[in-house]
Write a structure and sequence with these properties.
The protein is an alpha+beta fold. About 50% of the residues lie in helices and about 15% in strands.
Amino acid sequence: MRSDRGNGVFSTVFGVGVVLVLLFFASHVLLNLWLTSSIDSVAHDAATDVATSGADDAHLARVEQRAIARARDVLGSFGDRVDLRFEPDPTGRAIILHVRAPALHLLPAFVADPTGLGGTDHRVRVARERPNPS
């Protein structure tokens, strides 16, 4: 008759492994959702600051540079990894900010990539407000 001694080790290790994978997966998703939300908020604020500044075309570049500097300051050290660029609007009626940011990875790429959280790459468009001529 064989002993049952040590039979629970495999199932316990497997169970703990599954719990750890699920914990890392959930943490990965939550961290990237928080990061995307933060970047979107900062980018929208920067575009809104420029759109509501009332700056004419001659001073617009300086206002855009200040907005990008403030956005990078708010994002902290992650701001160095975020690409923020204002793009010209062909109609001249909007401010367009192109935002690119990498994702954070807690899991290996082959596990994290199918989640669809591969970073941020989009444009924020805000209607430009101009002062009324007096």
